[in-house]
Automatic annotation (TrEMBL):
This is Sigma 54-interacting transcriptional regulator. One of its GO terms (molecular function) is sequence-specific DNA binding. It comes from Anaerosalibacter massiliensis. SUPFAM superfamilies: CBS-domain pair, Homeodomain-like, P-loop containing nucleoside triphosphate hydrolases, PYP-like sensor domain (PAS domain). Keywords: ATP-binding, CBS domain, Coiled coil, Nucleotide-binding, Transcription, Transcription regulation.
Length: 581
């Protein structure tokens, strides 16, 4: 094609069929040689083989038909001969020949005559390129997504691509060569012929029930107006693309937030070796391959979301894992966050609307953390979604099918909340098909060392710190400590020590003060010989343990009795005996 002419060089196409003669030759001899040969020119060189002149048949004709009797060959010698080099492009040769108004161009390499570019070389290669360009141009036009129309200066259609045929239902064979206004009386292209001014992205209805976005512009070649070109696109197609783009943008925005929130390389993996946790893992794996709703319970910091993500990842579903902290969403934003909204649904609504969390989790998992904090009115809406598996955006009219697994989590006592009327019983049974109770860290002390090393490595890697040694006394204290904040608290303690450490070993003096104070108090109790009253010590210990069990169970006496490993009647008796409220 024509563009390829930029990469065709004179050395590739030049002719080596040429005649060279010394400057001592006479005009009569030149005339005889040219008449006998097929060539139209002779190149004259000096004794050094330097090109000094060109004589053509046309030159000889003018000489012999002129009144001038001077027929010297020297009159055809030139001081500066126009020539090309083998590395010059064919287009560059063409430009030289047009500029100098010559029909042939010698090709010199290092001053030596090596070939000739004639008019036919330019014509053959460029015409071939034009033909190839036409084929390629038609292919390109037919594979462009927009409908493309080109009309000449009189308004007749000269280009009508495949998408024009599809959009308007008119074949190219029918409309080509016809006036565009015969088919579209209010065609914008026809108006451009008069105004000669382009329009861009204009809404237009060229015929009934046909709504398009059109861009149209006049065509000028060498400052001469020759026609109009336009690109049209169906409005419904653009609307669908915008919706898909909006959905993609929402997904990207969500994933960016998730990446920023969860940068831990081990996130989603459960770090443990205790038997209690291994049992929970096995249960989770079994549940993961189903679409059953799961309720994960446990104290704050035990890793409920880590388990939820592990279930999602192990399930192999194609959709996303969408975590939602129910306690962090303002009441007035619950519906818009969960179900999304259409453009203009309310003041401040984003242009193009927004997809909700349930829609985002379609074919994936939505994790409702702290579900116990969900307001009653939203509990009712959530129950309806679980029953019907459909949602409706705020301001929208159509129902959207949803297929998402529900995993819920809480550290609250939902049974007690049901008794108080704070949580719907029907919703509880919907989300509590399978219950996974994550044990607190203090009940799986064999995991403390494993988690400590995991957190230590990650925190050191994140801060480009060499992993230090850890004094055995530090681990002794951490294993004995009562981890109310569980794994989350342990991670904070590890980070505290890593940041403050200035040596190659972490020692107990780097432990947070509240942990050291507790360890010191326990040591003093063990070394104190001033009070060896066993009855008094047992009484104080029982009161302390009972209060702790009630605190953990949120006042649930049955659960507290299980934690203390005593019958519930025994717990009631001790509550009365010690006057514990």
């Amino acid at each position: 094609m024509i563009l390829e002419s930029y990469y065709i060089y004179a050395g590739e196409v030049m002719s080596k069929d040429f005649i060279i003669q010394k400057d001592s030759i006479s005009l009569d001899e030149i005339s005889s040689i040219l008449i006998k040969s097929k060539n139209e020119e002779i190149f004259i060189v000096d004794n050094s083989n330097k090109l000094i002149g060109i004589i053509t048949l046309k030159d000889l004709y003018e000489i012999y038909n002129s009144d001038n009797n001077v027929k010297e060959i020297k009159r055809f010698f030139y001081k500066d001969i126009v020539y090309a080099k083998p590395e010059d492009t064919l287009l560059n040769c063409r430009d030289i020949m047009l500029d100098k108004k010559i029909g042939r161009l010698p090709v010199l390499k290092d001053g030596e005559f090596v070939g000739i570019i004639r008019q036919e070389h330019i014509r053959d290669y460029l015409y071939m390129g034009i033909e190839q360009t036409g084929v390629i141009l038609n292919y390109i036009l037919d594979n462009i997504q927009e409908a493309i129309c080109v009309i000449d200066s009189q308004g007749r259609v000269i280009i009508w691509n495949n998408n024009s045929e599809k959009l308007y239902g008119i074949s190219a064979s029918e409309i080509m060569g016809k006036y565009l206004t015969d088919y579209f009386p209010n065609a914008i292209d026809a108006k451009i012929i008069k105004t000669r001014k382009p329009v861009k992205n204009v809404f237009h209805t060229p015929k009934k029930d046909c709504h398009i976005i059109i861009s149209s512009a006049p065509i000028y070649i060498n400052d001469k107006f020759i026609g109009v070109v336009s690109t049209d696109r169906d409005v419904s197609e653009i609307t669908n693309i915008q919706k898909e783009l909006k959905k993609a943008n929402d997904i990207v925005e969500f994933l960016e937030k998730e990446v920023s929130r969860y940068s831990d390389s081990n996130f989603g993996q459960v770090i443990c070796k205790s038997k209690a946790m291994q049992e929970k893992i096995e249960m989770s794996k079994q549940v993961a391959k189903t679409n059953t709703s799961v309720l994960i319970i446990g104290e704050s910091g035990t890793g409920k979301e880590v388990f939820a993500r592990a279930i999602h990842d192990y399930s192999g579903v194609e959709g996303y894992f969408v975590p939602v902290n129910c306690s962090a969403i303002p009441t007035e934003l619950f519906e818009s966050e969960f179900f999304g909204y259409e453009e203009g649904a309310f003041t401040g609504a984003k242009k193009g609307g927004k997809i909700g969390l349930f829609e985002l989790a379609d074919n994936g998992t939505i994790f409702l953390d702290e579900i116990g904090d969900l307001p009653l009115f939203m509990q009712a809406k959530l129950l309806r979604v679980l029953q019907e598996k459909k949602i409706q955006r705020i301001g929208g009219e159509k129902l959207i099918d949803i297929s998402a697994r529900i995993i819920s989590a809480t550290n609250r006592n939902l049974e007690r909340m049901i008794e108080k009327g704070e949580f719907r019983e029907d919703l509880y049974y919907r989300i509590n098909v399978i219950k996974i109770d994550i044990p607190p860290l203090r009940k799986r002390k064999e995991d403390i060392v494993l988690l400590f090393n995991h957190f230590l490595k990650n925190i050191c890697d994140e801060n480009n710190i060499e992993i230090p040694k850890v004094d055995s006394e530090v681990m002794d204290i951490l294993i004995k400590y009562y981890w109310e904040g569980n794994a989350r608290e342990l991670k904070n303690v590890v980070e505290h020590m890593v940041v403050l450490n200035r040596r190659d070993t972490i020692t107990k003096d780097l432990l947070p003060s509240y942990i050291k104070e507790k360890a010191l108090n326990e040591k003093n109790i063990g070394n104190n010989t001033s009070n060896l009253d066993l009855n008094s010590s047992v009484r104080d210990l029982e009161i302390s343990l009972i209060k702790k069990a009630l605190e953990i169970s949120n006042g649930n006496k049955s659960k507290a009795a299980k934690l203390l490993n005593i019958p519930r009647t025994t717990l009631h008796s001790k509550l009365n005996h010690y006057n514990i409220d």
